[in-house]
Structure formats: structure tokens, C-alpha cells
Write a structure and sequence with these properties.
Helix 1 (about 1-15) packs antiparallel against helix 2 (about 25-60) and helix 2 packs antiparallel against helix 3. This protein starts with a helix and ends with a helix. The longest helix has about 40 residues, at about 65-105. With about 110 residues, it is an all-alpha fold. It is built from 3 helices and no strands.
């Protein structure tokens, strides 16, 4: 996440002195937006796992089944998020393969 934030700062600094892609106006802002979205998508699963571990530790220490149930709901949120991201990745890959076949067939 720190690397993604540093990439945003790097792009912002060099974007003010000259666009990193002179042929495409506004590319620096678009790049910063994409990197920030990627940073959020990296941090979200970590938050779910941290919630799970904290609640599970408290549930085991206090022998509280209700707290354990809450911790497992955080774990479920993690796996749902990761499953949705995997499906999006597979669909995106299939679309790219179809685009490559279409472009390659027209050459």
C-alpha cells in the first residue's frame, strides 16, 4: 500500500512539471485515480482479516459464542470480497482474450 501511495505522489510531483504522457492530456490524474482505487482494494481484505482476528481472540479468551459468531461474519466478508474480486479478474481476462483474438483475426 505504501508503494502505491508513493507512486501517486511520484506521479503528482512529476505531473506538475510535465505530463508523464504528453499525448494524452489528464493522464496523470487518471493514473493517480487508478492507483488510489488499487490501494483501497488492497487494504479492504486486510481490514476484514484484522477484524476477524481481533474478535476471534476476544471470543476465545472470554469463551463467548456470540463474539465468535461476529468474528466469523468478518471472515465471511473477507471470503466474499476475495471471491468477487476473483470473478471480476476472470471475466476481465476472458474479455481481454476475446479482444486479442478479434484484433489478431483482423490483421
Amino acid at each position: 500500500v505504501l508503494v502505491l501511495i508513493m507512486a501517486c505522489l511520484f506521479t503528482y510531483v512529476f505531473g506538475t512539471y510535465g505530463d508523464i504522457s504528453p499525448g494524452i492530456p489528464g493522464f496523470s490524474a487518471f493514473y493517480i485515480l487508478i492507483v488510489l482505487i488499487a490501494a483501497v482494494l488492497v487494504v479492504l481484505p486486510v481490514i476484514f482479516i484484522m477484524q476477524f482476528s481481533g474478535k476471534a481472540r476476544r471470543a476465545i479468551a472470554s469463551n463467548d459464542p456470540a463474539e465468535l459468531s461476529l468474528s466469523l461474519s468478518s471472515l465471511k466478508s473477507y471470503f466474499v470480497f476475495m471471491g468477487v474480486m476473483a470473478i471480476i479478474g476472470i471475466v476481465f481476462s476472458l474479455i481481454m482474450v476475446l479482444v486479442m483474438v478479434a484484433v489478431g483475426g483482423s490483421l
